[in-house]
Amino acid sequence: MRVLIASLPIGTGHDIAARALAEACLQRGMTVEFSEHLVGRARIETGLYFWALKYLPRQYGTVFRWEDRTGFHWEAHRRHWMQVGTEILSHVYDLYEPDVILATHPFALNAWAGVKEKRQAFKLVAVLTDLSVHRFWYEPLADAYTVWFPEQVKDLTRFGIDSKIVWQTGIPIRSSFRDPAWELPLYSKDPIVLLGGGLGMGPYYRILKRLAALDYPVVAVCGHNERLHWQLDQRSWPDTVSIVGYVEKMPLLLRHARLVVGKPGGVTAAEVAQSQVPWILTHWITGQEEANRDRLVDHDMAVRGDKDRLDAWVRTLLPEESPARRKIMQAQDNWARPHAAQDIALRLQEL
């Protein structure tokens, strides 16, 4: 079986899921290729997305929710990317002749649907990396969807998607999260880990300053945000604070973490759930991560520590005997799906 995995570099979660899927498919003897042929055409959308998050976050969230509710612009958006797919990706299909396309981003899903509309020669599967389903993910030509929570099945059926083609597998994460190497912690024992996603986004300095005042070990992960890393390094911090960039051994760090503080990205949610560490949500991208936040809280997998609640939640969740701590860890254990990528690979063969 030949599998082509299509994603876009808008956030890091899509790429992490793509790599996890590639690993699982290769283990089952499939031939795997990556398609990054849409990156150039998505440059404008990517730039506008990050600009809006930085300068007009509230307005972006309003438009995001309104388009999902009303469907306004959805068909034009879908048709645009189907046309792009027909123009750019037809020669990619001829080159690789894949049996299955796995799309971890809605732009990639719609673009490959444009090729499928002409060829009808491959299966098209949407791999969702958030905890809700925006209307942009609706693609009538998709053969299957993979989701995490049962609410997402309902999200898709409201668009008319048959629930039989929605696979409740979970979000694909790296196999190293199932059994991280047991070695000494990388920084200090049982730290509070501050995450901002792979791009290190959010009010980092304000949150880190509050955590640093608690006199407890803190590891602030800046991800690929080199500017943030440099800016934090220029400031004076207590000896309990470690500022780091991208962490290759994230499974090990999360397994040894006492608490996780940060934003509710979809892939991060799956990784934290597998690591079973109490999670305090302090900031989020308006729109999709607001939905992620609400579903994590509804499922008792995290708590909200925004506004003036961060210090209180840290004090509540640090003790080993804390009932609130045990409640979150139990919920994470119930919802962890460490074999999501392998489950998807198996279903591809059945498909």
Structural summary, described in words:
With 351 residues, this protein is α/β, with parallel strands linked by helices. The chain has 15 helices and 12 strands. The protein has a 6-stranded parallel sheet, sandwiched between helices. It has a 6-stranded parallel sheet with strand order 9-8-7-10-11-12, sandwiched between helices. Helix 9 links the parallel strand 8 (218-221) and strand 9. Helix 1 crosses helix 15 (340-350). The longest helix has 15 residues, at 13-27.
- SS-based structural class? alpha/beta
Distance between the termini: 11 Å
Q: What's the CATH topology label of the largest domain?
A: Rossmann fold
The gyration radius over C-alpha positions equals 20 Å
Number of strands: 12
Morphology call = globular
CATH domain class of the largest domain: Alpha Beta
The ordered H/E elements are EHEHHHHEHEEHEEHEHEHEHEHEHHH
CATH homologous superfamily grouping of the largest domain: Glycogen Phosphorylase B
Strand order of the largest sheet: 2-1-3-4-5-6
Biggest sheet descriptor: 6 strands, parallel
The averaged pLDDT comes out at 89
Number of helices: 15
The appropriate CATH architecture of the largest domain is 3-Layer(aba) Sandwich
Task: Write the SSE topology.
Elements (H helix, E strand, L loop, with lengths): L1 E5 L6 H15 L3 E5 L7 H13 L1 H14 L3 H15 L1 H7 L3 E4 L2 H14 L3 E5 L16 E4 L2 H8 L8 E3 L23 E4 L8 H9 L5 E4 L4 H8 L7 E4 L5 H7 L2 E4 L3 H10 L3 E3 L6 H11 L4 E2 L5 H8 L5 H13 L4 H11 L1
Parallel strand pairs: 1-2, 1-3, 3-4, 4-5, 5-6, 7-8, 7-10, 8-9, 10-11, 11-12
Helix pairs in contact: 1-15, 2-3, 4-6, 11-14
